[in-house]
Amino acid sequence: MNANANVDRRAKLLELPPVLRAGFRPFFFLGPLWAIVVVCLWIEALSGNITLPTALDPLAWHRHEMLFGFLGAVIAGFLMTAIPNWTGRLPIAGRRLAALTLMWIAARAAILFSGSIGGVTAMLAEAAFLFTLAGACAREVLIARNRNLPVVGVTLLLAIAAVVDHLEGLGFVGTDQIGWRSGFALILILITLIGGRIIPSFTANWLIKQGQGSLPGQASTFDHFAIGTTALGLGCWAFQAEPSLTAALLFAAAVLQAIRLARWGGWRTASEPLVLILHVSYAWLPIGLLLLGLSIVDMDVSGTAGLHALGAGAMASMVLAVMTRATLGHTGRELHAGKGTVIIYVLVTAGAMLRVAAPWLPMDYLLAIKLAGALWGGAFLLFLVLFGPKLLGPRPDGRP
Known about the structure:
Cytochrome C Oxidase, Chain A, NnrS, NnrS family protein, membrane, transmembrane helix, mainly alpha, transmembrane
């Protein structure tokens, strides 16, 4: 009975527009598109050329939209694509997916124009999307009694962090910046959790195809200790605990994550950029943790350096690494990075490097930011050009 029902549901998927057949399709398209818009508007506002119509401070809006808007969309696309693999259930699609997509779009518009419609309305619009997403994902995992409920739990915490960020921005609660800091930390914890699964797994699969031995091992006590130390350090940073303790934990986390990355042997995948970029992306994590810790104990190290190593570096490059691979795999294409895809990886990495180094470069700071934004935004624009048709169109093999 269940098998027949699944066959019927798969057949009905073919009746849907391709963009509504799986969560990665609309959200992997809209997320990068919004990232480009946010970066362009932020640079124009920073240059004094425009005034943003949001109730939030321009910096607070930029920070919020990159975390909860852009990355929120990518997380939604990832979860709604990964959960069917975890549970064996069919993906959230059709009207349910369309409703979630429209809720995300409404939240972005409401926050941008919150100066007119009110900050509370904008907060409620975003909360509706994030809490609905967390609930929908939790339902799928709970029905299947799958072990990945903690990952969904992080999504729920992300929704709470977004609401707190709104309340702080609107002056309803203290201005300790706990909202965006917590959201930032939660996304990095997701990277440590999910990256720790997919990077050694994809690396091992590729090495096996090449006939190589000495494969990356499964997660061990060391990995759990590295994840725990990272979560504790980021938690102390988010809630602004005692500075010396926070810095010590961030330094320890940086060392542990660097060792963890080295154990996966990423240098052996240099001939396949689709795998190598996962290791390059993860390398930004220990670099960013180190810079963040240094900014606490050394006034000569800008706090923005660590934040952008983790945000523009780890988060953005990991997002592109996952989106390119998932789009190819789930639309029936060969898992291989072409020249255009390699350029995407080069652009996002170069943009992150320039943004992190901007405070120390012998050039105008604003010019460095604009150049970094152009490189970084160019990576996402090229992604839309090359992968947009794959996301919005049907699979070449005709499968749902």
